[in-house]
């Protein structure tokens, strides 16, 4: 009898052990799937793309309706010549030239901006309007009604700023908030390696705090990045108002690492709110 009881116990123990192991395995798979879903979330697609575009638009154009900003153009007096389009491409830095070049590829005929390509090449690195002027402003706004112009702006935006921001954020082990913080910095400071550009700011931050990929704490590292960026922002009168960074700081302190809606923030003294219903009306 004792032997029989022992056999039953062993059998029960074996079954229970299998159940426990199966549960652990399934939970592990579930957790892995959750982590994978979190890791794969990025600001390049879907509602997160809309959120981030709206956030950046609130800073660039005082509006969360970024879909209306593709036609924007003016000289804001920051030494970069004309600032134009959905994220403020500039004639001085050359990304405006890249937009017009891409537009010309997509629409080689009946293109109102084609005639400005030589002038745009000539003014890169300056704040000059030579060869551009008022007619360029009118033609830019006319071209912005074309689907090809919207496509051109988005293509340059993705290639120069958004996709690299996501790549760098993934390399550093950052989530959605980190991607947005990187992207906004890339838009304002450019993707260069000097201390005043995105990669310079990133290197300064890494010198004072480890990234999550290096075993560091994400919040601590992002704080270091914002601190490093604030120093650069204050160097330029056009960017001396730190509303962009204050907004990101508020999301960081609130622990909103996934940019969960609704979002509320203040940009240059103006209050904004973003929810799913407001985003549903915006399109690229």
TrEMBL record:
Protein name: Chitosanase
Organism of origin: Hespellia stercorisuis DSM 15480
Molecular function terms from GO: chitosanase activity
Superkingdom of the source species: Bacteria
GO term, biological process aspect, one: carbohydrate metabolic process
Keywords: Signal
Pfam families (UniProt xref): Glyco_hydro_46
Signal peptide per UniProt: 1-32
Gene Ontology cellular-component terms listed: extracellular region
